[in-house]
Amino acid sequence: MSLKQLFNHLVKKNKTNKEKINWVTNPPKKDFIDFMTNKNSVTKTIGDEWEGHAYYDKAENWLYKFWEEDTVFYQRFQELDCTHIVEIACGHGRHVQFYLEKAKSITLLDINQNNIEYCKNRFSSESKISYYVTNGNSLTGIETNSQTTVFTYDAMVHFEMLDVIEYLKEANRVLIKGGKILFHHSNAGYLPTVYYTSKPHWRNFMSADIFAHLASRFGFQVISQDIFSWGEGEDLVENVDCLSLCIKVKNIDP
Ligand SMILES: C[S@@+](CC[C@H](N)C(=O)[O-])C[C@H]1O[C@@H](n2cnc3c(N)ncnc32)[C@H](O)[C@@H]1O
After folding, report:
1. Whether the CB of 242 sits within 6 Å of ligand 1
2. pTM of the predicted model over 0.85
3. Domain ranges for the chain
4. How many Å lie between the centroid of ligand 1 and the Cα of residue 179?
5. Phi then psi for 77, rounded to 5 degrees?
6. Distance in Å, CA 187 to ligand 1 centroid
7. What is the 23 CA–ligand 1 centroid distance (Å)?
């Protein structure tokens, strides 16, 4: 997609939302700068976007995108040891059914308390699941060097880079050596000063290369990075996503 096509796409997507369209302008306005320089407000606002969203019910019908056998999500997932597994940003827990049997312990985290309550109800008969509301970038509550896998699907694409960095650090802390992360993240490494909701499919600023660099700084070796498109028909945006599979090779200093 050329920059001109991208701009047209953004304008089309946001034509009903003047405030967000202002955030596409360059240079950014003062209120936008104030917002973006307050770290907690960005993380919280991204989390708030998903509170009670209509997405969750609809998304139950889109599981094939992740779990049909010819998808990269399914194939890379087979490379994980699910014995002690953490899912970041679990939403309503639609992915759990695909690893429940394999796991001895499961930890579900989400920034929204409502989602955690939903999962507690949904899986009330499962004693091997623990639940935490996260502040948006930590795995607090999970023991150091205790987990075999940390993964996240359909969520980190929206997170801002500063939170991805913290999650990488935290994943290094909670994983055993040889444990793996499987993170579905953005590959929209353009428009670096634009707020994420004004970018295609709400993909935040990140790229496969930046992610690989960060992962290597936090004690991981990249096993694979699959870059792929998202959306259908005229909403298709090429190469906007990436699925990174990495192995923990070293403990980092806290
Ligand atoms: C598009 S939903 C995806 C939910 C789930 N992963 C799925 O595939 O069904 C995005 C999820 O990310 C959660 N979220 C947003 N920001 C977060 C953050 N910084 N840390 C953890 N969860 C976050 C939201 O509450 C929401 O559940």
Report:
1. no
2. yes
3. 3-248
4. 22
5. -60, -30
6. 18
7. 23
